[in-house]
Amino acid sequence: MVINSITKNYSYMLAQNQGSPEKIEKGVRGMIDHMYGKHENCDIKWCGFLKDRASYRHTNLPFGKDLKSESLRADLEKLFLGKIESQSKKLSKLASSQANESFNHTVSTKAAKNKHYSGSSSLNYRVSAAVLQKNEGYGYVSKVSEAAGLSPGNETIKRAIRLNGKRDKKSERAKTKQHKKRRINLKKERSVKSTGVEMREGRTYESEIGMDNEQLDEEIPAPMNASLCIPIDISTAPLVVFDLETSSLYRTSDVIQIAATSSNNEFSSYIFPKQTISIQASEITKHTVSANQMFYDLQPVSYKLPHEALTDFITFLSKYPSKPILVGHNIKRFDCHVLYYSLKANQMWNEFSSHVCGFVDTLELFKKIMPGLPSYSQTSLVSHILGENYCAHNAVDDTRALFKLLTSKALNNLDAFVFPVSHPYDCIVQQDNLKSYNEAIACKAVSRATALKASKSNLKLSHLKLSIERMGLEGLKALLSEKTDRGNVRVTNCMKVIRKIFDFLTPES
């Protein structure tokens, strides 16, 4: 904040005193004194203290108070009074380069830099055209044609009038206070974004940086791009309702039955488990295994081995003309994770992911569109909405009932509830990241909510420490307050929280 204040005051002082070395010398002294509460060298045109001595507070210094550090004052006087003041004559002749930059841009539209026009006879005409456009406006084309005895062209005249009007409006808009504020804010945003990228990447370009691997800096992960989570248009994706029956109630359990239902297709397969089916799971699903035979409700069923059944399921999904969305009840907390572990164990997760657009959990969907129900279990929803009962905890019957429920009530509300296929893997990464914050949470240096948000953003505690090593407190602030592609703050921009984390990671300070 102090740095920004010094920069702003110095820029304004130079702009207001152009052409007068004496005023610049006085302005340099007044700028420093003003920040330290001394206003003898101030001008009532810009000094708020001289206008209202009783209630004046600095608008761009911490807490609105005067600076107190004498060491900082000595450094400022050494820099500004010792070096810059002696160059007041040169500084008084400075002018804005904006007009030159604007003209250079116009020239580049006529004589592009990636073309070798400097060696052609047309260069003089191209630069002359840029000068005419700058001085006369877009109507120069018609005037040149008329001077050469050619028709000025009605369409050319209309186009010139339209473009000149557009340029005039843009020029007027650029002079407004709101537009100037917007330019300043956009510049700040670009600066913050650039700082964040530099801090995350570390050293990427210097002499012989690739010769010694130990010199290479670790790159801190960027915020996850939400627009990349669902890569295709989900409004056209077919819906496939699926359900799993498992050997236990843990995410790492085996799949013992998998079924799927869509508008015109069905899939079902029993899978012989490697793990023992728990008593609790068996009571719920009615699945049992005896010797080498699998039973459902005490009736023998034909089954397949995991790799064969999962291959058939992927083949079933691949036959759709576009990638389907898999829909299920309470899948975000359970079924997706069980399916991930089973596919991962058979080295089939990547192939499965390439054939699926995303997931939808109907438990979240019905809680949103039908708040206040006593129960959101699938059997309760079917009974409440459809007035029907069915054989629950058989994957085939579950998928049929859920598809009927879905098409009768909530088909138009799915888009907002789609989550990416990578969700199970992302959860594992998040849990791994969260473990790195255990000590900080125990010491109350980081709240669990903040640690969880940082973990979801793919940040470990080591990444926060690395940002401090590179850029200190500003580096930590840049990392935690970095904006995502949706415009949200990555973790937090609260300086109280950031300072607490900084103090924990730098106890020597």
UniProtKB/TrEMBL annotation:
Looking at the record, the residues that make up the Exonuclease domain are 238-415
Record-linked Pfam families: PML_C (PF25244), RNase_T (PF00929)
Cofactor(s) needed by this chain: Mg(2+)
Q: Which domain of life is it from?
A: Eukaryota
Protein's UniProt name: Exonuclease domain-containing protein
CDD domains xrefs: DEDDh
Q: Which Gene3D superfamilies match?
A: Ribonuclease H-like superfamily/Ribonuclease H
Q: Give the SMART domains listed for this entry.
A: EXOIII
Q: Name one GO molecular function term.
A: nucleic acid binding
UniProt entry keywords in alphabetical sequence: Exonuclease, Hydrolase, Magnesium, Metal-binding, Nuclease
GO CC, any one term: cytoplasm
GO BP terms: DNA catabolic process
The family line of this record is: Belongs to the exonuclease superfamily. TREX family.
